[in-house]
Amino acid sequence: MAEMRDFSLLAAQVRAARGLLGWTQGYLAEGVGVSRPTIMDFESGKREPHPATLSVLMSELAAAGIVFTERGVEFRKWPARPYVPTGIKQKMPRPVRLEKAVGTRKTIKKLTLVPTKR
């Protein structure tokens, strides 16, 4: 019975960690490499995830700055930049076409004028 309580606490901590990070169940699931229902079932206490899945899940949350404590969860530190779980496919930024980035001389002059006090 103590195992079930520990499992329930861990499920609540994962839910709280997601909340701190602003992650959805789907986002965490994609990052861990499982389905969204797996995360839903774990957080609701319906089933315990496979130990390997739980290990990846905990590693991803820890890498994002989450620390699991007896009281719940907290940030170890605020990440300098948002952490993206390893399983998330990163989109490459679209290149900007140079001719679209270059304005006319008149427009550039207007944008670079420094207002003076009269």
What's this, in brief?
The protein has 6 helices and 2 strands. The chain has 118 residues and is mostly helical. It has a two-stranded antiparallel ribbon.
What report would you give on this structure?
It holds the Pfam family HTH_3. Residues 14-54 form the HTH cro/C1-type domain. The termini are far apart. The protein is mainly alpha-helical and 118 residues long. Strand 1 (66-68) and strand 2 (73-75) form a beta hairpin. Strands 1-2 form a two-stranded antiparallel ribbon. The protein has 6 helices and 2 strands, in the order H-H-H-H-E-E-H-H. The chain has helices at residues 2-21, 25-32, 36-44, 51-63, 98-101, 105-112, and strands spanning 66-68, 73-75.
Q: DSSP strand (E) fraction? A: 5-15%
Q: Enter the CATH topology name of one domain.
A: 434 Repressor (Amino-terminal Domain)
Structural class: mainly alpha
Oligomer: single chain
Strand order of the largest sheet: 1-2
Q: List SSEs in N-to-C order.
A: HHHHEEHH
How helix-rich are the residues, as a percent range? 40-55%
Shape: elongated
Please tell me the overall pLDDT: 76
Radius of gyration: 23 Å
CATH architecture of one domain: Orthogonal Bundle
Number of helices: 6
Strand element count: 2
Largest sheet: 2 strands, antiparallel
CATH superfamily of one domain: lambda repressor-like DNA-binding domains
Given as residue ranges, the uncertain stretches (5+ residues, pLDDT < 50) are 1-5
Taking the alpha carbons of the first and last residues, their distance comes to 79 Å
Query: So what's the CATH class of one domain?
Result: Mainly Alpha
Organism: Bradyrhizobium erythrophlei
InterPro entries: Cro/C1-type_HTH, Lambda_DNA-bd_dom_sf
Protein name: Helix-turn-helix
GO molecular function: DNA binding
